[in-house]
Amino acid sequence: MQDDVIKIARQWKENLDIKPQWQEISHISKKHKAYWAQWDRLVVVDGILYRKWINTITNAHSLQHILPHTFRREVLKMLHDDPLAGHMGIKRTTARVRHRFDWVGYQTFVDKYCKRCIECQKRKGSSNATRASMKTYVVGETMDRVAIDI
């Protein structure tokens, strides 16, 4: 099942030889414009829209499946919640998603998903570091004690 944004981007790549002009797409959504901006990196294989991705460190090439909205939560369950996935946290889960898939706003989606994961919240400790209480110093007269930040 395709969502409308991906369907239109796929139709562009299948039916058009050149990138549509800005005047043709300026009135449509930001998501459409994001795929339009990546025109040269998009490719259709067997009716599925992919994005060409090059790892800048290893110089390896791969195709990222542009994932429809209906499958995103299911994919994150496999890449984050599965016992073999290990609830790796936001950075590692984002890296795992980025390696195989792409969609507009995937980083925000992964971030929210991981922050709402009950298992992760149970394991993660409190972010409030314990602090020593502030002390008051009693002085006899003005200028008995002076503090300077260096």
Walkthrough of the structure:
- Pfam families: Integrase_H2C2 (PF17921).
- This is Integrase zinc-binding domain-containing protein.
- Residues 68-125 form the Integrase zinc-binding domain.
- The protein has helices at 4-15, 22-25, 30-37, 69-81, 90-100, 106-115, 118-123; strands at residues 42-45, 48-54, 61-66, 101-102.
- The radius of gyration is 25 Å and the shape is elongated.
- The mean pLDDT is 87.
- Strands 1-2-3-4 form a four-stranded mixed β-sheet.
- It starts with a helix and ends in a 27-residue tail after the last helix.
- It has two domains: 1-66, no CATH class; 67-124.
- The protein has 150 residues and is α+β, with helices and mostly antiparallel strands.
- Strand 1 and strand 2 (48-54) form a beta hairpin.
- The chain is built from seven helices and four strands, in the order αααβββααβαα.
Provide a brief overview of the structure.
This protein has helices spanning about 5-15, 20-25, 30-35, 70-80, 90-100, 105-115, 120-125, and strands spanning about 40-45, 50-55, 60-65, 100. The model has no long low-confidence stretch (mean pLDDT about 85).
Q: Low-confidence runs (pLDDT<50, min 5 residues)?
A: none
Encode the helix/strand succession as letters: HHHEEEHHEHH
Q: Looking at the structure, what is the overall shape?
A: elongated
Please tell me how large the radius of gyration is.
Answer: 25 Å
Enumerate the strands of the largest sheet in spatial order, edge to edge or round the barrel: 1-2-3-4
Q: Mean pLDDT, nearest integer?
A: 87
Q: Report the end-to-end length measured between terminal Cα atoms.
A: 63 Å
Total DSSP helices: 7
What is the strand tally? Answer: 4
What summary fits the major beta sheet?
4 strands, mixed
What proportion strand?
A: 5-15%
Helix/sheet category: alpha+beta
Q: How many domains?
A: 2
Helix content: 40-55%
